[in-house]
Design goal:
The protein has about 425 residues and is an all-alpha fold. Helices cover about 75% and strands about 0% of the residues. Helix 5 runs antiparallel to helix 6, helix 11 packs antiparallel against helix 15 and helix 13 runs antiparallel to helix 14.
């Protein structure tokens, strides 16, 4: 057994029970990105006119948010390994709240860009620390089940956020969207204060300054199986984001689907992932998490194959294209939570740093996938297909070559069987 694994098994939590309230609170802390993006993007034209700026600069506010989100995770996760979870979690919510307020009152586009970085950084801190809290309190199969439930709850946010954003913009303006996000930040702080106890015992914390704390990032990157599972997660997300970014062009402009049928189909794919994430949570214990990942990767690859036939061959029916998209989205239910749990269990002694690396890996994959996939616009789906194929291939290779021969099943105390 490796030294990191031995330390991970020896260093467990302070006995905080895994409750529905705790899971709900953690889900709220990790819901910032979909709400901070999906609620806001419909207001882009109004922001452009109100701040007398350009569409490209307004688009920069999205990039700014995700850069802040990545930086916040890299700082917040290792910081929580050093100082404990509770304080960084509360600080992350406060920073996110202040950033949202700054966005709501921003007088110029550049102030808005800066405040979006702040908002993203706060959300990143809260997200990384919240995931570390779950690793502290859950073990083995229970951790995989909890992560699947979190994936299901997280899948609801992209479905709800655009509706809320549209309602706010309809009755008010774009600044009110950020006031709504400020309310979300306040709720993050209050729930963290009320419902999240300290889950990292003092003897498990790492002393020293920020440099010593950040060394945990380097440590987890030296654990081969952790890196493998993180790559599985990240490139599965890379594949999925290609669908999210380019589906509107493919289905509406290339396949002739109307806006309302497209919206209903898009919602159905998200719902499929939510429901199958709950199914995955129920199956953990009966089937090994590693076996579930293999099923997900196989299914995702089959979905990409269906899209190659349904999109690149023009005389094929719309149904085949829709089936490919639905299969890819649904397959993520068996990949993301299980890979995250199996990776995190190898480095629980630096759970904050591990959560940061996992979060940043996903964020970078998403940031790269989206512009590449939609570069063909409504003219060609070849870039999207290429992105999906590459993501599926790297996920499979990472799983086969880097995650080891362990069967990925845990006993109740967390030790690998």
């Amino acid at each position: 057994m490796s030294a990191p694994m031995a330390r991970s098994i020896a260093a467990r939590s302070v006995g905080v029970p895994v409750s529905a309230v705790l899971i709900g609170t953690v889900a709220l802390q990790t819901a910032v990105p979909p709400f901070a993006t999906d609620m806001y993007t419909p207001a882009f034209p109004r922001v452009t006119a109100d701040l007398a700026t350009t569409a490209s600069l307004v688009g920069l506010t999205l990039t700014a948010f995700f850069l802040g989100f990545a930086a916040g995770q890299l700082a917040g996760g290792p910081w929580s390994d050093q100082r404990g979870r509770r304080l960084p979690l509360i600080v992350g919510g406060l920073v996110c709240l202040l950033g949202a307020v700054g966005c709501a009152v921003a007088p110029t586009i550049w102030v808005l860009v800066v405040d979006r970085v702040v908002q993203g950084a706060g959300g990143g801190i809260a997200s990384a620390v919240a995931r570390a809290v779950i690793v502290d309190v859950a073990q083995g199969d229970q951790l995989a089940r909890v992560m699947s439930v979190l994936q299901a709850l997280g899948g609801l946010a992209p479905m709800v956020a655009p509706v809320i954003g549209a309602l706010v913009i309809t009755v008010a303006g774009w600044r009110e969207v950020f006031w709504s996000l400020a309310g979300l930040g306040a709720l993050m702080v209050l729930t963290a204060v009320w419902f999240v106890p300290e889950t990292l015992a003092a003897e498990r914390r790492h002393g020293g300054g920020l440099r010593r704390s950040l060394s945990g990032v380097g440590e987890v990157l030296r654990v081969r199986s952790f890196v493998g599972y993180t790559l599985v997660q990240s490139f599965a997300s890379f594949t999925m984001l290609a669908y999210i970014a380019d589906a509107a062009y493919v289905l509406q402009e290339m396949k002739g689907m109307g806006p309302i049928p497209y919206s209903l189909f898009f919602a159905s794919t998200a719902l499929a992932q939510v429901l199958l994430s709950l199914v995955n949570a129920r199956l953990i214990g009966r089937f090994r998490p590693r076996a579930m990942i293999a099923v997900g990767l196989t299914t995702s690859t089959a979905g990409v194959g269906a899209l190659i036939l349904g999109v690149l061959l023009w005389d094929t029916p719309l149904l085949l294209t829709c089936l490919g998209f639905l299969t890819i989205m649904a397959s993520m239910a068996f990949i993301y939570g299980n890979a995250g749990a199996l990776g995190a269990m190898r480095v629980t002694h630096v759970a904050g740093a591990a959560a940061a690396v996992q979060g940043v890996g996903g964020a970078l994959a998403n940031a790269i996938s989206a512009p590449l996939a939609c570069s063909g616009g409504g003219r060609t789906a070849v870039p999207m297909i290429a992105v999906m194929t590459f993501g599926a291939l790297v996920s499979i290779l990472s799983f086969r070559l880097l995650t080891g021969s362990s069967n990925g099943h845990f006993h109740s105390h967390g030790r690998l069987a």
